[in-house]
Write a structure and sequence with these properties.
5-stranded mixed sheet, 7-stranded mixed sheet, Thymidylate Synthase, Chain A, globular, 15 helices, Rossmann fold, alpha/beta, single chain, about 30% helix, 3 domains, about 475 residues, 15 strands
Length: about 475
């Protein structure tokens, strides 16, 4: 059997008779091992991620001559801490199921973990190794474990990893934005049980609708809404009258419940000062709703004038995205347009912040079907502008100019390629530090074009943005 089994090309091999293995975490392995005699360690390598522990463990179990494992270098991804937790007998969620618990217990008892985390001085590490019993014998026969089956995760059975604090989606219409909302929740929503039902829930879903026509809603068949159904619902937000058999309506809460018409007050304030920030409507009544069986889901609205248009914000404490979100969005857009008409301010974006954005389990399959069948990639301009990339063959330099969406020049970036292997990396870092890109696809595009420009300079080729290099 050839050892190591995994990541052979990335592991530095020393003396096959040595009982010492070295893990350098995020620190470049050569930086540490350059000052350590190859004769006193058997293998050394980095451990970038927690998942890499699986292959480290399997390599160790396949070579039981290694009796000491030294952890050194910088632990930037907590892989070193996770490794130490495993050696301390703590439960780990990252280990492959194929690794037997009995084998893992034998490994952690037989291989001594020496924690030198943070240390990068090879000479000091070598001194620690020389204190060990380097004649210690193997603790058993090699063990080989099968690779786990690589199977795509089922969106409906799990929650994919992400930053869970806030999600932002953007679309021209309510319908298009709704499809994106469904996809986000089905993919990243946390599975919970509430009121004896399962939900997938994403926190703080910020949905931005930019161009929905309040007088001619876009209603594709797959949305499942008709003009009549929307018109029947609109009074619940637009009108101030109570509606029979309903515990509350949003319109009544805004216009009569607190004995003040908050919508009219918002309009008055905007007429007096379009930049007013106290243009807020409250729907949640603390004296009732903390104990009430039925309480409003939309709890706050606010109209804010920005960049020449009146934007409209709505905060929703609990939002059924599949069953309730589209109707809410259409009605809020209508209310926004009425405020715009009375204040004579241009219609801006509708922003709906859903604190608990969720889909009930009995709607999961239908929501997945609708989003997969109808959500299509659409070209979207980056709201932070675009980039023009050129090269200067004489100076062997990449030149990047950043323009606003309107075509106004914003900033110039440049980097010389000669003797500068990190030129493209440094350019992308500068652009990123300036927060100049808002779309993931735009970032990927920039990376591709910058590398093409660098390749053209290195090979003496012509470079034209958006065209392949002519070899």
């Amino acid at each position: 059997m050839k050892w190591p089994i995994y990541y052979k090309n990335l592991i530095k091999i020393g003396n096959p008779r040595s009982p010492v293995g070295i893990v350098t975490l995020w620190t470049i392995c050569d930086k540490i091992t350059a000052k350590i005699s190859k004769n006193i360690y058997q293998a050394a390598g980095q451990l970038y991620t927690k998942n890499g522990i699986n292959y480290l463990v399997k390599n160790l179990l396949a070579n039981k001559k290694i009796r000491y494992l030294i952890i050194a270098g910088q632990d930037r991804s907590d892989s070193g801490q996770e490794l130490k937790n495993i050696w301390q007998g703590k439960e780990s969620k990252i280990l492959h199921k194929e690794i037997k618990s009995s084998s893992l217990n034998n490994l952690t008892k037989s291989v001594k973990l020496i924690d030198l985390t943070g240390l990068e001085d090879g000479k000091k590490i070598e001194a620690e190794i020389k204190k060990l019993d380097l004649n210690i014998k193997s603790y058993g026969e090699p063990e080989i474990f099968p690779e786990p089956e690589e199977k795509d995760l089922n969106e409906l059975e799990c929650s994919w990893p992400t930053d869970t604090s806030i999600f932002k989606i953007r679309g021209q219409t309510v319908a298009q934005t709704w499809l994106k909302a469904l996809k986000v929740i089905l993919k990243f929503g946390d599975i919970k049980t509430t009121d004896a039902m399962k939900i997938k829930e994403a926190l703080n879903l910020a949905a931005v609708i930019t161009n929905e026509n309040p007088n001619n809603f876009f209603l594709p068949k797959w949305l499942g809404l008709t003009p009549k159904k929307i018109n029947d619902y609109l009074p619940q937000i637009i009108d101030g009258q109570k509606i029979k058999n309903l515990h509350y309506t949003y319109g009544e809460r805004l216009q009569k419940h607190f004995k003040i018409n908050q919508v009219e007050e918002i309009i008055k304030k905007l007429k007096k000062d379009k930049n007013a920030r106290e243009t807020v409507g409250i729907l949640f009544d603390p004296s009732l709703d903390h104990v009430a069986e039925h309480r409003p889901c939309i709890v706050l609205i606010q109209a804010l004038f920005n960049q020449g248009k009146l934007n409209f914000n709505a905060y929703v404490r609990s939002h059924d995205i599949f069953g309730g979100w589209p109707l809410n969005a259409f009605a809020l857009r209508k209310l926004q347009s009425q405020i715009c008409a009375k204040t004579k301010l241009p219609l801006g974006d509708l922003i709906i912040m859903s604190a608990s954005a969720h889909i009930y389990d009995f709607n999961w399959k239908q929501a997945l079907k609708i989003s997969k069948e109808n959500l299509r990639p659409r070209f979207e301009n980056d709201s932070r502008g675009y980039f023009k990339i050129d090269i200067d063959k004489k100076k062997i330099e990449i030149i990047v100019r950043h323009f606003s969406p309107d075509g106004n020049f914003l900033k110039k970036y440049s980097a010389k390629i000669k003797n500068n292997p990190k030129a493209v990396t440094n350019l992308t870092k500068q652009i990123d530090e300036d927060l100049a890109v808002s779309l993931t696809i735009h970032s990927a595009y920039l990376g591709i074009e910058l590398q093409k420009a660098a390749t053209a300079l290195e090979l003496g080729l012509d470079y034209v943005q958006d065209r392949p290099l002519n070899y």
